[in-house]
Amino acid sequence: MKRLFLLTAMAASLSAAAQVWDKTFPQSDQVSVEKVSFKNRYDITVVADMYLPKNLNRSQEHAAIVIGHPFGGVKEQSSGLYAQQLAERGFVTLAFDLSYGGESGGTPRHLASPETYVDDFSAAVDFAGKQPFVDRNRIGAIGICGSGGFGVAERKKYLEEIAAQRWSEVDGAPVRMLMGTPDSIDEHSPEVAKEFFDYYRTPRGQHPRCTTGITYTSSAPMMNFFPFANIELISPRPVLFIAGERAHSRYFSEDAYQLASEPKELYIVPGAGHVDLYDQVALIPFDKLNEFFTRNLQ
Among residues 137, 148, 250, 295, which is most buried (max CB within 10 A)? Predict the structure, then answer.
């Protein structure tokens, strides 16, 4: 009996731990969350949070949305917030950790691999489509933020530095990390650094599984990844680009919009910066997202 009691107590403890809210945003009383996992085609386990409206009729098929977090982030931050907000509006949503980070598998840790990241999205769609309450013909995707670009003139020098670092690590040097957000700032720091610091390095968005760092040598494959390649082939699937009016990255969305084929739409959020659209609920155009996905996932 003592052994049975011990096992029961352990199970209860694990269950309670699983229910602890570990997100950077408040929990909604209209939505339930289930921890799930699935494999991508590289046999890496991707871990996700599935958000479901509490009044969801599981005997019917519903529209779903898979949501990827900002580059260097985790699902407990902005992508989870988006997932919860859209679940409140009736969608089945999935916020997942990209491979090599968060709770997802993959080694070495903090590797940046654009090909794997793309497949993570595909695997998330596959998982959502396997759910009996999801309509496979009505699955959308949201990608928040993304990696930055490099100037063409600096590319050759940068690749030479990466090559030198690879040889250093082959010879036993510690793995060099490239941090997406500085650990400290001062009055002379660039405004964009201050913006990211205020989210990732303060209680506002800080999470123990998020460092925003990637291995330095990962920058080479990231430079070979051109997100605008074949962007016109998304058509006839509709695409919505959203950017903050004051965002340093606004031109990425504007460039992508120009290159994409119809149907397409560019929505600029008045008064918003880049990181504002991570968690500032009053600025994030959730009604616009709701209208877009409701109209196009019919």
Answer: 250
Fold of domain 25-154+219-296? Rossmann fold (3.40.50)
Residue 66 tokens read as: 């898979």
Euclidean distance between CA atoms 238 and 264, whole angstroms: 6
| pLDDT exceeds 50 at position 6 | no
Evaluate the omega torsion of the peptide bond into residue 208 and state whether it is cis, within 30 degrees of 0.
no
**Helix (H, G, I), strand (E, B), or coil: what is residue 140?**
strand
10 Å CB burial of residue 87 (0-12, 13-18, 19+) is buried
CA proximity to 207, closest of 175, 176, 181: 181
E strands present in 11-133: 31-39, 45-53, 62-68, 92-96
Give the residues across from 240 on adjacent strands: 265
Q: Please tell me whether the overall predicted TM-score, pTM, comes out greater than 0.85 for this model.
A: no
Count, in order, helices (H) and strands (E) of the chain: 9, 9
| Amino acid (1-letter code) at residue 25 | F
Q: Which segments within the chain are labelled E, that is strand?
A: 31-39, 45-53, 62-68, 92-96, 134-143, 177-179, 213-215, 239-244, 264-269
- What's the pLDDT score for residue 31? 98
Residue 180 in contact with residue 192, Cβ under 8 Å?
no
**Cα–Cα distance measured from residue 177 to residue 264, given in angstroms and rounded to the nearest whole number:** 37
Domain residue ranges in the chain = 25-154+219-296
Instruction: Give the model confidence (pLDDT) of 161-213 as tens digits.
Output: 888 998 899 889 999 998 889 999 999 899 999 999 999 999 999 999 998 99
Return the number of other C-beta atoms located less than 10 Å from residue 33's C-beta: 20
Q: Which residues pair with 140 in a beta bridge?
A: 65
